């Protein structure tokens, strides 16, 4: 018998309950039998939980795998259940799948179980079928988006229908933590101490903790959990498909799984990594060592040699200007105990808490002042835009609208920092922040934990071969976590060829302290 492929697509999790895959398989096999074709089990390609409306054909992995298999085997025949399983965009199946195959396999035969004749993209009936399925999807999509917006705009803190996040169950439309909530907390805790997402996935897989899919943990799964605000008790929706993009956010809509501190520390650590380099590096004092003789930053160097057939690895901190190098093991043995001893004594003092509270309060006041200035700038830009509209000055109106968006974006950034400050202040008042270090310093530390403690508490280390190292600790650890000089400001958003009055307005509003 002639071999053929079969393709099955299930578009959503809801179809798992209606035996969609089994129904499609049965129809495909029966159709193949009538046509005198053989479709082995390994030739049945299943695309699970994949939309053919939101994803064009070349974004569907299994469809592209089918395409490659047909090219490799030169088997020209494939059977679909119906046109809707091929495509709901009306055109990408033909562009991304059919036409490229047709060039290499001229006798390609694409069948659907509802027709005895092969699919022909130039056939009017086939064109109409694809267009009708696209229209059907558009109607469903618009209806779903409309219902979702209507639900969200009632301001009810109940979750609209969607997939329940890992770590929660749903009781009367309200999310309630379930037995997997501890795994979510563990993921955030590891991430807050610099453990990479790939490493977290490996740890969970090796511990045989089931993932949301029931398979091995993937880095992307960890990333999705860490980026989801639902775990802090926030219900957040961003609707892309409405005519105007809409965002909805409801705080305290359900019980949080993680405390906000863990979430904010993860973001802070990411910023520290951008500034000082990797967290999982063996060079614990990377970008924290300054030559006491020439004031240059020491760089790192990896070296190796082989003696008697055995390879030996060497790692050094190097001053290129003074031409000396220091072995990392020797240096770490000197500096790390001093650092940990300092941290242990600092976190128990009342002075540290008072200094930190004062800094955070000052930071919060600066944020509020900048937000108020930006809100005033928005009012002025909006006023200019209204005048421009009345005068029919399109260029000025567009420039004013651009500035308004820029200022709103800056406010969003400042509000983000304000949330971080609130979490850190709360952690200080409750001693959760101090307890975090007490608990950790009593145990053996991983590389990322040592590295983060250094980044939090060490400002600089002056060093040279002839002088003892001089550790300069941060007077206030939050200066490293939230440096005031890095606070986002609305500066430099000048427009090319913009009207003079908007330029003047922007100059006035850029004087934000």
From TrEMBL:
InterPro entries on file: DNA_bind_recomb_sf (IPR038109), DNA_bind_recombinase_dom (IPR011109), Resolv_N (IPR006119), Resolvase-like_N_sf (IPR036162), SSR_resolvase (IPR050639)
Name its species: Rossellomorea vietnamensis
Q: Which UniProt keywords apply?
A: DNA recombination, DNA-binding
Q: Where is the composition biased (Polar residues)?
A: 498-513
| Gene3D superfamilies documented for this protein | Putative Large Serine Recombinase, Chain B, Domain 2, Resolvase, N-terminal catalytic domain
Domain of life (superkingdom):
Bacteria
Q: Which residues form the Resolvase/invertase-type recombinase catalytic domain?
A: 4-157
An example Gene Ontology molecular-function term: DNA binding
Cite the residue spans of the region called Disordered.
493-513
Residue ranges the record marks as coiled coil: none
Recorded protein name is: Recombinase family protein
Which SMART domains does this entry report, sorted A to Z? Resolvase
């Amino acid at each position: 018998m002639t071999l053929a492929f079969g393709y099955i697509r299930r578009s959503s999790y809801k179809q798992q309950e209606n035996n969609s895959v089994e129904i499609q398989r049965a129809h495909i096999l029966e159709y193949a039998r009538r046509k005198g074709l053989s479709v082995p089990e390994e030739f049945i390609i299943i695309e699970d939980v994949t939309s053919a409306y939101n994803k064009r054909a070349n974004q569907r992995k299994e469809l592209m795998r089918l395409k490659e298999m047909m090219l490799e085997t030169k088997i020209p025949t494939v059977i679909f259940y119906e046109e809707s399983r091929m495509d709901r965009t009306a055109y990408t199946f033909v562009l991304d799948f059919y036409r490229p195959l047709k060039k290499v396999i001229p006798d390609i035969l694409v069948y659907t179980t509802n027709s005895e004749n092969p699919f022909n993209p130039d056939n009017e009936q086939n064109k109409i079928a694809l267009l009708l399925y696209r229209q059907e999807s558009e109607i469903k999509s618009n209806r779903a988006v409309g219902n979702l917006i209507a639900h969200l705009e009632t301001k009810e803190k109940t979750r609209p229908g969607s997939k329940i996040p890992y770590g929660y169950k749903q009781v009367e439309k309200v999310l309630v933590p379930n037995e997997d909530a501890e795994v979510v907390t563990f993921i955030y805790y590891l991430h807050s101490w610099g453990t990479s997402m790939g490493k977290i996935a490996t740890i969970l897989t090796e511990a045989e903790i089931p993932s949301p899919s029931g398979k091995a943990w993937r880095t992307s799964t960890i990333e999705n959990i860490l980026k989801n605000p639902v775990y802090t008790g926030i219900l957040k929706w961003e609707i892309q498909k409405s005519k105007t993009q809409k965002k909805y956010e409801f705080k305290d809509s359900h019980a949080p799984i993680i405390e906000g501190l863990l979430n904010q520390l993860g973001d802070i650590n990411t910023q520290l990594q951008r500034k000082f380099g990797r967290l999982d590096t063996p060079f614990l004092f990377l970008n924290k060592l300054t030559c006491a003789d020439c004031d240059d930053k020491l760089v790192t160097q990896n070296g190796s040699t082989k003696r008697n057939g055995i390879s030996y690895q060497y790692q050094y901190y190097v001053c290129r200007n003074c031409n000396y190098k220091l072995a990392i093991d020797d240096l770490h043995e000197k500096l790390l105990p001093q650092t940990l001893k300092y941290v242990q004594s600092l976190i128990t003092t009342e002075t540290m808490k008072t200094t930190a509270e004062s800094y955070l309060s000052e930071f919060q006041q600066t944020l509020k002042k900048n937000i108020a200035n930006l809100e005033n700038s928005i009012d002025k830009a909006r006023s200019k835009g209204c005048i421009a509209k009345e005068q029919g000055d399109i260029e000025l109106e567009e420039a004013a609208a651009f500035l308004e968006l820029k200022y709103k974006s800056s406010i969003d950034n400042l509000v983000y920092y304000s949330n971080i400050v609130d979490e850190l202040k709360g952690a200080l008042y409750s001693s959760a922040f101090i307890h975090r270090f007490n608990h950790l310093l009593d145990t053996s530390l991983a590389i990322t934990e040592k590295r983060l403690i250094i980044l939090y508490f060490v400002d600089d280390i002056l060093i040279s071969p002839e002088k003892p190292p001089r550790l300069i600790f941060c007077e206030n650890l939050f200066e490293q976590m939230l440096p005031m000089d890095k606070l986002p400001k609305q500066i430099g958003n000048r427009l090319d060829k913009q009207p003079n009055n908007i330029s003047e307005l922007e100059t006035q509003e850029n004087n934000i302290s």
